[in-house]
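Here is one chain, start to finish.
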Amino acid sequence: MDKKIMLAVAGAGKTYELCHSINKQQRNFLLAYTNENIKNIEKEVIDKFGEIPKETKILTFDSFLYRYFIRPYELLIFENFKVERFETKGVDILHTPEPAYKNGGYNPKYKKKDNIEHYIINKRYYCSRIPELILDIKDLFNIAISNINNYCDYIYIDEVQDFRKEHYKVLEKIIKKCNNILMVGDYWQHSVSGQNNSGIPFKDTTYQDYIDKLKKIDLKVDDTTLKKSRRCSRNVCNFVRKKLNIDIEASDILKEGNVSFVSNDSEIKEILENDDIVKLLNKNSKIYSFHSINWSYSKGDTYKDICVILTDDYQELENENFILSKDTITNNQLYVALTRASRNVYILTKDKFYEHRKKYLKKC
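Its structure:
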């Protein structure tokens, strides 16, 4: 058995490495948490092979769980709840399950775990509760993974840092029981999406803690192969390493690209009005007329030049004695933002931006 994870930095080519590792003659699953990642995987696989190999299936993790852990075993699921089987219609992504408590008290609309309606609405499985269902039904996981092992040679997973809570618990069981698995991810990009940010495996977990956890489930941890960024220049990598304490290096030390704090009013105006320079804000980017995106939403993107607009916590980022915030999530979001440029990174403090901000607010 071969079970390995490659820990990467931003722009190191995680998806490229993953897709170029597959053997098209084998029976493969290529999985990722988001649809956007799936698009990137499909593009990379087609670039390499000219097509998606016949024996390779590319799916979101939720689709994989539904198709191979839920759909074939509905008889077992319905028997578990002692209800008559009915025809299901797939997965529901529109409705949020009722919580047990609401408005400070017990929620009478909440369905307990012994009720099949805890997992199903309008004959569709709640997407968010599929991992929970797999974990709760006795023997379901073991039966499903045994069958998967019979017709799958290798599982590949991109952006593994996106997996949290029950999704991670199921993934951990898959790692332990599957034949072979290769995963890639960037620890420093965990919890940047605004969703799925709580719980295992990252709560109160340092980088070394994370590595130790991975080793405990018998994963080989490679934290050197993807240590160098193919996207960012040496100057940008040095800045991120110094300010955010993240061990990132540039693969091309001669690549052009600088980090500049901008304070001159005419230069600020020029940057804000140049749509070739993407503005990255912590939040609310849509309220501005210039070309912009939120820090977290820029994950996976590459731009030539960017302008990162800071929040109050990073007002002193330029100073030698800057002390990094203890807010891990926001630090990771800033890391994502600072590593989007293939060339130059311009930085605006909040104070300087607010001197110009009003002019660029969209009219209601």
